[in-house]
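Input set for joint prediction.
Command: fold jointly, output tokens.
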Amino acid sequence: MSFLSVRGVKKAFGPAVAVQDFSLDAERGEFVSLLGPSGCGKTTVLRMIAGFEKPDAGSVVIDGEDVTHLPTRARRIGMVFQSYALFPNLTVEGNIAFGLKVAGVAKAEIAARVKEMLELIGLPKLGGRYPVELSGGQQQRVALARAIAIRPRILLLDEPLSALDAKIRVSLREELRAIQRELGITAIFVTHDQEEALALSHRVVVMSAGWVEQIGTPPEVYHTPRTPFVATFVGTANVLPCRIEDVAGRLSFHGAPLALDHALTGVTGGEAMMALRPEAIALAPFEGATNRLDATVRDVTFLGPVARVRVVLAGEIEALVDLHGEATRILPEPGSASVLYFRPESLQLLDRRDRAG
Amino acid sequence: MGIGPFAVFALLFLVLPTAGLFIGAFQDAEGNFTLANIAGLMTPIVANAFRQSIIVSGASAILGAVIGLAIAMALAGPGIPRFIRDGLLTLSGVASNFAGVPLAFAFLATIGRLGLVTILLRDLLGIDIYAAGFTILGTTGLTLTYLYFQLPLMVLLIMPAVDGLKKEWGEASAMLGATPWQHAWRITAPILFPSFAGAALLLFANGFGAVATAFALTGSFINLVTILLFAEIRGEVLHDPNLGYALAFGMVAITAVCNIVYLRLRAFSARRFR
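tokens >
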């Protein structure tokens, strides 16, 4: 059985359904991100794991113990909030020691643990400061130390980096990952930032409108998105209509033949959607690029390492092509005819998920 | 330049009168320097007036502060509809300024010896509050009357601090294993204390300086500093304007200390808990 098991959890706030039938299993030491736009239900899931919200249905089991109806304080979880939520009346040491004090831990042990935590977060000299005297990054480090000082079973992170500026965000992200790996603690991380989710996680849960769109490793979610939402939310993708010609993986786009790299099972043909990453396309033939589509260049934006070319395909459908490296030396002229080349494995057939009911 | 008119106003109606008070407190009727007025503050009648004023304003400040805080916490809690909160805050704004003759009359008409509530309690429930020793003209009655404006003033003063308590602090406490009581004792109380103490001091100063309500309610039945001061300056029975200046000087000193401590506590809160 998994270390954390969330089964069939649902939550509505009045008529607004925040989470629809959410299930997730996480192993001990695993780092799982809940990724999605605002209002997709990711924070509500986290708050249900924490016990701040009570699910309308379903269960939350941590290390074999059903905690669905346990109050937060009995769950032994650590949480880091977006707004840090440090206690302003306590010093850094006071904040880190808080959970140990209320648990009645001996003074000497508290002092040793606080020292250990301060060293872990790289702020050994700031124990006597008050939160207001710290920068945002330092406050969030202290919040992390406070959460892990109590040796929680699970660490919950609610967009902990989003209130920080970009540079601090990247460095703290790396520290966070290092600390999580070092402690071997199971972490559930909520973010709307796909780069953060991909960089930190063992697995990513992509959510939209209360539903789980896809659960997978970062490369799986990126390279084989299952739904149009995942394809466009995680990175940039051209989501194009197509027709399934046969179970061997042959498709067509406005009459132009295309091929997948695998046969289809359980698909009988008909209209479908496919995803194609801009960086998987070239405007010149290359090895294995057996798929081709005629296009007309609409405009070109040169961005240094990348040139983004907007093209128009058959049926007046727009698509993006990213040219890299040497390919950006000679850029196509707007209005010129061009051919898009890409490999069968770059094409991803998407689910057409019907969510009515 | 923008504060010019205010500076002139403050100079004419605050600084100069206060300076006049200060000088008058150290002069006799002929304008010669004397410490007799300050010594006069130690006489039994004056000392008693200060004690009585401190008791009434202190009691009304403490009760107003505690009950006002409880009301503010309830208003800031979850599940309170917006219109109730807005309505109560507006009512507090009005009630905190409702003092003087109308307030005294309102209390006489309700819990005076022949007040509506007094009669209803006696005739309907058989409770005779006056037979039990209560009198609107006593310390308890005056404290109760003062509470009418002290309590809403407390709600207005403490509301920003209560609104500043973050929900996440409670959640962080719970996550760290604290009970609601542990959270209240270790986090909420220390955060609110400077604002609470500052507001209570302001209530004390407010009660200490109140004169019209007490005078309209009790005449000179209760010996408060403000009533004694009124008598010394108006001079119907007592007349010693310079002792009056000394009394006022004493009052200014006490309320100034309250205000300075309030401002310091507020500044501390703003700095530490922003």
